[in-house]
Design goal:
Layout: H1 3-6, E1 7-11, E2 14-17, E3 22-27, E4 38-49, E5 56-62, E6 65-73, E7 76-80, E8 85-88, E9 93-97, E10 102-107, E11 117-127, E12 138-142, E13 149-151, E14 155-161, E15 163-164, E16 167-168, E17 177-184, E18 188-192, E19 198-206, E20 208-210, E21 213-215, E22 219-223, E23 229-233, E24 237-244, E25 251-254, E26 257-259, H2 262-273, E27 298-300
Antiparallel strand pairs: 1-22, 2-3, 3-4, 4-11, 5-10, 6-9, 6-11, 7-8, 7-10, 9-12, 13-14, 14-17, 15-16, 17-24, 18-23, 19-22, 19-24, 20-21, 20-23, 25-26, 25-27
Length: about 300
């Protein structure tokens, strides 16, 4: 099958060099801003952080979205204004529902700062449907052993969210969502069904083809709706499949806020500037300030 018949868009992420590691941001992009509910897609790492150093994402707020952290290598210590304190390691998933407002931080735990450590994570934001935007904040953590895994001699896949290949992950979803971690061993193959309205594949390591179309690393491929295909790798590959239902109403984004209305974004901005958001127990001495300058929202259909 030709790439035009199979792929709707090909997105090369923007890369941000943070010193000790790089972040590859595939969404939002000029070419495309959402795939199903996914409105933000980052690959952090891979990196080897030296002894004495770590990641310190200081307390910051979110509204009207859910954040999903999926660890591939390394650990983060998540804290939030609900009082949650949760260590996340490889294979585990953190789902934090911001709803009407939450504050959180992610840091390298103290025990890991005394030695070199690896870091590799996929971090995403999911826009909440209109009916759930102002829900109560919530947090859930699921270890890798609690997520469904499908495996044969040449392929392995973990369902992170939603239902895929007949298996359903016990992680909450608000809109219809699919999300999976796929590993293809040499000669491995796995089908990519067309059950979701919108789907994308992200190759983060190795080499793979989709119905004969070559996929490049650090690239997001948006699949044409309704077209099933098969992933294959001659030498081995690691990919993420994500997507779900298409949103009928646009989303507006400014800084860490996502909402169906611009007015709600500006209210959140004022609330954070006035420190009306709740604080994080045990991590309330630092925070990320509001960006300076006139706010400019971006609307995503």
């Amino acid at each position: 099958m030709s790439s035009d018949n199979l792929l709707l868009q090909t997105i090369t992420p923007t890369t941000h060099d943070l010193g000790d590691f790089k972040v590859h941001r595939a969404l939002p992009a000029k070419e495309r801003t959402m795939v199903g509910p996914f409105i933000f897609f980052d690959q952090a790492g891979p990196a080897l952080l030296p002894t004495g150093q770590g990641v310190d994402v200081r307390p910051h707020p979110h509204i009207n979205l859910a954040t999903v952290t999926y660890m591939l290598e390394g650990t983060f210590l998540h804290r939030d204004s609900l009082g949650t304190e949760q260590l996340i390691g490889p294979g585990a998933v953190n789902l934090m529902t911001a709803g009407k407002g939450i504050v959180h931080s992610e840091r390298t735990p103290p025990a890991d700062r005394g030695h070199d450590k690896k870091l590799l994570a996929i971090q995403t934001w999911l826009a909440l449907p209109d009916r759930d935007e102002e829900c109560d904040p919530a947090f859930e953590h699921v270890e890798g052993g609690g997520l469904p895994v499908l495996e044969d001699h040449a392929s392995w896949a973990r369902v992170i969210m939603g239902t895929l290949w007949g298996e359903t992950a016990q992680v909450s979803t608000y809109a219809d969502t699919i999300y999976a971690d796929i590993q293809l061993r040499p000669g491995g193959a796995i089908p990519v069904d067309a059950i979701a309205e919108e789907r994308a594949l992200y190759l983060w390591q190795g080499a793979a083809t989709l119905d004969g179309v070559e996929l490049l690393p650090q690239t997001l491929y948006v699949l044409r709706p309704g077209v099933p295909a098969t992933l294959h790798s001659d030498h081995g590959a690691n990919l993420v499949l994500c997507g779900g239902e298409a949103f009928a109403t646009p989303r507006h984004v400014w800084w860490n806020f996502v909402s169906s209305t611009k007015e709600r974004l500006m209210q959140a901005r004022e609330d954070w500037e006035a420190m009306r958001f709740p604080l994080i127990p045990g991590d309330d001495q630092e925070y990320i300030p509001i960006p300076q300058g006139r706010p400019k929202t971006v609307s995503y259909p």
